[in-house]
Design goal:
The structure holds 3 protein chains of 3 kinds. Chain A is mainly α. Chain A has one domain. Chain A has helices at residues 9-30, 34-59, 63-90, 110-129, 140-159, 163-184, 190-218. Chain B is mainly alpha-helical. Chain C has one domain. Chain C is 77% helix and 1% strand. Chain C has 20 helices and 2 strands. In chain C, helix 9 runs antiparallel to helix 11 (240-269) and helix 10 (230-237) crosses helix 13. The longest helix of chain C has 36 residues, at 149-184. The two termini of chain C are 21 Å apart. Classes of the chains: A mainly alpha, B mainly alpha, C mainly alpha. Chains A and C meet through helix 5, helix 6 and helix 7 of A and helix 6, helix 7, helix 9 and helix 10 of C.
Amino acid sequence: MLPAHAPGVYTGAANVIAVLILLAEFGMFRQALLRDQVRLYAAQSALIAVLAVLVGAVRHLPELYVLAAVTVALKAVAIPLLLRRLLRETDPDYLLDTGHDIAGSGGLGLASTVLIGIVVAAFGFFSAGVLPVSGGGAPATALSVSLSVVLVAFVLMIHRRDVASQAIGLFSLENGISLAALVVAASLPLILEVALLFDLLLAVVVFGLLIRLHHGRADTLSTADLTSLRG
Amino acid sequence: MLPIPVVQVLQVVTIVGAAPAVAGVIARVEARLQGRRGPRLLQPYYDLAKLFRKEALAPEGASWVFLAAPVAAFTCYLTVPLLIPVLTTFPLPLGYMGDILGGGFILSLAGFLVAVAALETGSPYAQLGASRAKTFAAITEPVVLFVVFTVALLTGTDLPYALAATVRSSAGQIIRPAHVLAAAALFMVILYETGRIPVETHSGTNEFGMIEEARPFEHSGPYFALLKWGSAVKQLILYTILLNVFVAPWGLAATHQLGAVVVAMIALPAKACVLGALVAVIDNSFAKLRLFKITEFAAAAFLLAVLGVFTLYLGGG
Amino acid sequence: MNVVVLMLLAVPLAAAVVTIWLPSHAAGAVTAAAGIASFGLVLALIPAVSHRDIDVLGFIRVDALSVVFLLATGFLYACVAVYSIGYLRSGGEAGARDRGYARLFWAGLNFFAWSMLIAPAMGNLALLWIAIEVTTIVSALLVAIEGTDGAAEAAWKYVLLASAGLAIALLGTIFIYYAGAHVLGQSYNLAFAPLLGVAAKLPPTVVRLAFVLAVLGFGTKVGLFPVHTWLPDAHSEAPTPVSALLSGSLLAVSFYAILRFYQVASAALGSGFPRDVLLVFGVASLLLAALYLLDQQDYKRLLAYSSVEHMGILAIGVSFGAPIALAGVLLHVLAHAAAKGNAFMGAGVLVRKFGTKRILSVSGGLDLLPWSGPMFLAAILALSAMPPFGIFRSEFEIVTGGLAASHNAVAAVLVVLVTVAFFGMSVAANRMLLTPRREPAADRGEPSVWMVVPVVAGLAALLVLGLHPPGELVGLLDRAVNALRGTA
């Protein structure tokens, strides 16, 4: 086999950031405290912003700087604040840190879910390899990583048994899609990207309302008794 | 100009000779971080010398395996430095004896022999440590394999020398995700293999958490000395692989001039001490994982290694 | 015409904003007026778009295909608005709820209708996605408005699944952008008309992937198998007028999004692949719905599964590809809106009259409800494709198209499954309406006249569509079919 040819510093750096985003997604498997999951989501969003700045600098797309700024403001600051406030309201002992905001976990242990995540991520890598991607954005490996992030986020949403973790899983799924957008749609008109971000903010508000409703009725964030509607 | 066989011997001598020193430095750094004065830097040598003078005992019912295992393990540890880039950037003749996969096998063989000897003893602690070590090894060995695959995919061979040369060649090689991930995975495996936090507390014998520490429980005297020395040598070998192949492949001799070789002989333990200091910092920053969470730790290392192969093989990273 | 379009988009929004501050009666009146006005505006658009597309302000684009869906939404908006007046009034002690509920209800209804009206009018795939996302979040709040355990559970499932599906659809939209940017340059803004123009030059693999993602993603909102699981819960737990809009309009508007992607995909890839994808999803949905309809305990869930069934029929119809099948699909959108709206409105009357959603607890409907009973029965028959109602005509056209395109096996399967579905629904209808009342009856009479009038209108619409669709409507459908087939 021929030696793998070095990709260049920009490609390498961009790919490392993309892989860190994927690792953050896996990290959410482990985090038991909802507070930490929110932090991880904020870190993941910040990484997306960093990657946007990098791509913008190297590919001469100044719009991406604005996008990075809006991403940080919304996804790394505003949305985590909203989520933290929601958690504080739904957990009376939040400040006492008695661990009531432990995420409900599913049936499988952590190592098994990580293995499933690896299989799913492999599928994401393989499927992206089919696409002929030659964009003016981030390097092509990042597309494979982004599809893996999306798939692993699905596994996260399926595995978790409480509404807040499921919501955070959905938001990190959207992060994966933002990463894909950085690869193939880096020059999507800024107005559309900003509209998408504000749409996300709106969705977060609605999610918050519904979580409060759920918590108001069930006095817990767990989804264990959301089984009454069947058939 | 040193003749090649001498350089080969010096490789082994450097590793075997410097290993207790590195262990001593780590212990000293750790103690200093905890606010103590710490033992002498050369204390491990004194310990080994003391142990060699002591009487050896064997449990009733233990066979020749019990006595042969430490010697055999140490022999394995003497062999591996011949295969990896310790002092030189160019492969030495015996270096073709085995590639990095072979090196991994020989290290596992050594661990296996020690575990068998421990099982032989009938002592509960030794058996406990041996069984735990081999259970977790079921997860960490594949990690090592995947790291080896990364090396192979990156360079087209699985000679560690080749990877070192590739890494030295350009900055792009260092920052590519496969390289970073493989190095991180290997570092986590090293933490496991050398028995440090977050896997095991290195000092003290806490039977709830012992893995590596428990295996030499029943040995004594020179055999115990060989086992202790062997673990120190294993630690330095693993550090050498991480440093000279992945992270910092500089300071190696490009020719076999005497001066270059001497510089390399000093550089290696120096780099190992830096890495050891980092390990000591980690020791003092994190808590030990509960035993059943070590699978999570190993799964995380496995994840990093697998992702490294994926980004490389499927993604061109 | 531009003014008409702008008014159409502005009136419901204005109504939504205004009803936040009005008391319930006035809010109801404003909403009804807005609904009827919107329907009138859409009717006014029909002659215009039969000849050309309307472009307003650069990002709004209304063509024949859009107007079909606008028609469905407008009609249901008008009917449901009037119906809700009666629904809220007849709620008894539950209806005399705090003003908060009524205010949220009316404002939400208007916002919901507005979001469903802007989606077909967006000329830009990204804005289309945003519009459908807005429909999701507004409707999720409306599903939860009742505040019961079931409503909370249904709303959570709905919003989570629908948002996940829309995230997939967003990925598909991004890939379509990538395909388009290849040909149209990097600053391409996902406008639909230019994309269709260059469709033949788009890279096929990317378009294929984008189409599958779009079908899967938007299909979550349409209720296609296997991502339909939120649908029975959400449609049965929402307040009945909202369920009517959800089933009759929202599913259709989401299907509109799939149709746009279908247009691009079949222009870029030829029609084989897109049709195969839709066929698979359609048959699976129809099969699942038909089977589930055989064993339902809750009549609103029954109607929800019927919606899954009809969405499956839509997908199958598109996959047949023959012009008459496509015409049948579009007629089906209209007829299903009317019929499903009628059915849900009748179900709402049953809820108000009998106080339960369980099929087994309802009996003697025909005796106790002189108007709504027979009309509900008619609606159930209409949904099962009985002549002379519109759905019979549309399904007939679809099956004819299938036979014409040599998809004989699928057409046969469709007929069989529709019959199975009819069996399931008729058993329930029989139990609810035709069996004599066991316990001493509540008094005979309609809960509210406001709940009868819209159903009569819906029934009239179904008869018109079934017996003799007006000429302009046929012209509109022809032009829309041509757009779908790519023959302008």
